[in-house]
Amino acid sequence: MKILKTIAEMNEYVRKNKKRGHSLGFVPTMGCLHDGHLSLVNAAKEECAKVVVSIFVNPIQFGANEDFDKYPRVYKKDIRQLKGTKKVDCLFMPEKEELLPEGFAAAVTVDNELQSVLCGQSRPGHFKGVTTIVAKLLNIVRPEKLFLGQKDFQQTVILKKMIKDLDFDTQVKVCATVREKDGLAMSSRNIYLSPEERETAAVMYKALQMAESMIELGEHEVEKVVNEIKRKLKEANVKIDYIDILRAENLAEVSRITDEVVIAAAIIVGKTRLIDNVVVPVK
Ligand code: PAF
To answer: Which residues of 107-118 are buried (b: 16+ CB within 10 A; e: fewer)?
Structure first.
């Protein structure tokens, strides 16, 4: 596994591989890797000749009062894990100054309702930071396929829109959320949880599953389903940031469930904000 730190080295790597006709699968990450990330690596290896992973804790996607400073940076462990898969050909690990040098002033944004709902409401500016950095990474890596996890559902919808609107020649592959045994979605932020909080956090997926069953059993009123989720979460004493049910395709608001929907939740357990979702096809 090559470890490259500069854009110039990446340009050279990408040029060589394109010349040899190798397709590139790209997995962008912020490190502190877990099995969710590794499932993206596996999917990329299945579909592409070469797999490129990036690790970059992107400062411009964190709000002023968020966890940028304490975000876990465990680079040695990440490198060991990626090498262990034997599936990663290149790891791109730029320093902040390489991707965002002093004076950097550009921004890429999907400026519509996609970024004003769900996490967009509680994390203003977050998605602009994501789209700006992912646009830069796509320009550098020029992958045939980009692999993203469904856990960040809104991010996947926004990045697909950016890729379509800006004509990036990259296909987006969304891979299923990987879960702990009790259903908690794997996330780098789970390590912030104390053992008791960790136990409590499992309620989020249970509440989402309950909501999924209600819809499958014929409940079509969004308000009723959302109220049931809230009831279950309140019983577990967790703070709710949002619970929403939106059309999965375009995150549009619905009052009755008639198309495929995403049930999305963000909760705060202790001091940790966690997100999760399930997508429910309507028969
Ligand atoms: O999902 C993430 O880890 C980040 O938002 C991403 C896509 C790597 C951009 O910094």
So the answer is: ebbbeeebbebb
